[in-house]
Batch of 4 targets.
Target 1
Amino acid sequence: MTAGPATEMPAAAPGLPPIVEMHELRVSFGGVRAVDGVTLDLGPGEVMGLVGGNGAGKSTLMRVLSGAHPADSGEIKVDGKPATITNPRDAKALGIETIYQTLALADNLDAPANVFLGRELSTAGGLDDSAMESATRKVIGRLNPNFKNFKRPVMLMSGGQRQSVAIARAIQFNAKVLIMDEPTAALGPAETNQVRNLIRQLKEEGIGIFLVSHDIHDVYDLSDRISVMYHGRLVGTVKKEEVDADDILGMIILGKRPEDVTQRDRENIQL
């Protein structure tokens, strides 16, 4: 294990103010503190990996940011201004979109219908299918130039193509922040590589990404910084270049920063 520092949370992208800041967020369910005083931020064009074991609190934290569950206390800022997020519509209005593991696509509809689902374009005569298809081709073309199946129902698409549609739906409406929940779960190697390329493209476009995943290798390869949660609290946020995958695994299992892990700890978990 390397000895990368984690005592202070490293800043978001140098010279750029954070898009999102979460300060001392707390969520309790009965007597259980699912999120216990967590502070995080995310910069433009940054991928923040968020990892932890089952019950660590990472999904609950992202549910707060996405508007699916209110925090009991704490503050969220977007572009430096205090933000009130009480439901998903509030989050979307602030440019925060969520891509769930299930993708939440309508399987019987094609790509344009899914991208504009609930936000359809219309003319005096009805839906403007031509404009929606044109916009969908443009946005997916930015993400995946090889995508061709615009009129095929998404149930017939590969996992990587379905991710393209879900991401296009988010960024078509000017998303600044994407929360991606287990984006490569249940995908084969080729499809996983497609999703990795999509994430890199979003990063180049300046979109901030919270990457929630159990796949340590995906998180380590794609993230700029990695935050680890343990039993509701934030163990630490580290810059990728200052740690290795074993450090991250140790933080997840032990709930300790890399510099606090002892030789006995390492032997016990065989790092």
Target 2
Amino acid sequence: MRSFHCWRTVFYLIPAITLYTIVLGTLSLGSSLFQKTGYFSHWCARMWSRLILATTGVRVRVSGLERLEAGRTYVFVANHQSIYDIPILFWSLPYQLRIIAKESLGHVPFLGWHLRRTGHMLVDRRRPERSKIFEWAARLTSSGLSLIVFPEGTRSRDGRVARFKGGSFHLAIEAGLPVVPLSVIGSRHVMLKGRLATYPGEVRLVVHEPHRFAHPPNLAQPGFLTIVSVDCFAGRSVQAKRNLYTEIVDRLEEVGIPRDHVSITVREHPAENWGIRGGRAACDVDLGFDVNV
């Protein structure tokens, strides 16, 4: 069965997708000469996405769109399981969307030309220019365009969500935009990373509640706003807490976060409120250290 899908991909899907890319890419490039907003080019991208999904046999079931406001600008943050995630999101989200893509895609005929001409950002992952990315995002969002970001940075091989990179949230904070988490479920089974075969199937896209990151208006670099929360046993002295605050701020400053952009909260809990070491109350356990410091 797998060999059938490999042959189907090579001799049917790839030629069909190549044709879609050439035709719609040409229309997109032509329109970019006359329309600077890129709206028609995005329509071409959505049609390209729809044709790819239909030809592959992928059905997308979307839930949660009612949580969004029509015409609003968002930063969409999605998990990344498959090369099909872009067509799934472009077709399913009724917004003007732009993405951050790896620099190498810019060299792909028609696709790369479309990305360069219509407002998408191509980034060299080895040497990303942070300031350039923030300037690009601010320019797009001021024009009412929404962004799609994959904070994992690459596709998952096993379907598990990898550690997020913070850049996507910095973009949202800098631009003052709400972040919309997206869950793409099942796309990895359409085309597994590292394999050529594609398979028909159903994919779920869940649109979660938007979240807005507020920040004090006096911050020089809002993207570096850092909120630290510490849960600990009750009993530390005021001086011990002062030392803790200083140590945290010093460590964060070493990695470029301004001291006045850090907010720290210490939440103290009585030892009887902690269940540890097999469900025992912490007050009944020899912790091996003195909490009252």
Target 3
Amino acid sequence: MKLSHPGSHPSTMDLALRREADNAVRSASESASGRGPQAVPQLVSQAIPRGIPRYRWGTLLRLLFPIALLEVALWSPLPVGILFGIGALWYIAWQVYNAASNARSLGLDLRGVVRESWLLGATVALALAILAAAYFSGSLHRLWGLRYPWVGVGVYICWAFVQEFMLQCFCVPMLRAMVSRVSSLLLAGVLFAVAHLPNPSLTLMAFFAGVALTSIYARRKNLYVVALIHAVLGLTLAVSAPDEWFHDLRVGRHFWERPSTIAEEVSPADELQRPQQR
């Protein structure tokens, strides 16, 4: 079995999924041992047919099941959606808990945040540049029209961490067990984009963000770092992007049913100009 180089720190879930694949091929070869060497290629080809191999169907179903629950949660009324969302998160957490050897293998390492402080600093610098551009263009507004926006900030940071936990610790190892490294990066972006439907601009942005954050996690192996990058840039877009761009970052049924909170908002620059216009 070919393992990753030491710097990549493969998780226990990665090793378990690869071991499952190797066992399927080995069992096919052993069953053919009594039929002569000519039967080995035939049985191995039966064990690994073209398309999705049989031993990978279980991995694919385990991947799609919580994703389906999340989609139902996004498109259902709020009480039902909360139940389906909790169910999806519980399933993913249970799968990761059974497969992970320790918290550090999942990237839960606070010391890594200090090591990657330069990356967080670059993210904050990018966020400040976007906020400055929004201020002078007149598109800066309150966070979702909240009276106490810091509550929304705290909730969004937690939600960003949950999203990255589901994507990096569950979805990506499942994808990596079925496809190549490059394909898993692209498919991670696809899964992240699907979770942001039907918001067209946000869906496109989520694809590139999913690929970028997955690449950062694969190299840095720190969940806190990618979650903070996700939270900082997401909150920046939420208060700086015009309404017609991302529609308050709404997804699922809320994209169609709930009006934007930006419509009644004005930028600080407009507030300063308003008394002069009177």
Target 4
Amino acid sequence: MSSRRQLQKDPQFVVVVLLVLLAAGSTIGPIGVGVAFASAQDPASCLELVRDAVANEVAANSNSTKHMFRVRKQTPQGSQTKLYVETRDAMVGMTIASNDRPLAPQDIQTEERRLEGMAGNAEQLRRKHSQEQENAERTLRIVKALPDAFLYQYDGEESGEASGDAGRQLVRLRFRPNPAYQPPTHAEQVLVGMQGFLVIDPTTHRLARIDGTLFKEVAFGWGILGHLDKGGHFLVEQRDIGNGCWEVSRMSLNLTGKILMFKSLAIKSDEVFSDFRPVPNGITFAEGVEMLKAEEVKLAQNRGAETIDPQNQSH
């Protein structure tokens, strides 16, 4: 899986919370024929289906395909829309709208200057790249743990609409903690308090959705590092964006807890990822900045054209 998502303000703890980042971003064929719906109803077949899907997600992580895409994030404070582009150096992100209103020209200029400054700061880019790599490694450990951390039970079938193919049937599995599982690090510790549903495309062996709830409080480092409250919920969906390439399409988080025993943690957000387009794999951060600047200009021109289009004028 690629290191697609979310640099957090408190990365050492919140990265553990955001275990659900199942970002893929690769083209890969199915591992095998797939488990038939009928045979997926026994626990052994459920586990086999999960292992195959996880193996595909792990293999996808090594793919170098990069994209430009758009993210709209809704929180209790409002919404923010950003353009992102993946580069060989680090992820580039530019805010283009707040509460669904385009940024004012001076605010766009501020964003551009910020990114240009970052592009010219080799040490800052090195730190950003290192942090993204560490986040990706933590996420990968979580994904690899899914077959062993939970017990799975067949829960039915559903349409593949969320994965971009309404005519495709997906397998839904209910999961609960495996009492024999011992988390090897703090990153996997949250899994022992989680239950929910895993939805898999049995044809491509890809994870289409994970919907999890914390059924008990989960402590980190004997409670010294912090804890997550009972009742926390997350939802992550990913879909095929074309050519067998899967990307996260939605991520919803509603989590509370404490960091270092005293600092309150509250995450409530709903993010939609869209408009994925491939970009050259070897582009630099500076080139990514220029791509986002050019894209914002196109968006502004389109808005201007819509404003003066007579068909959009009231009569």
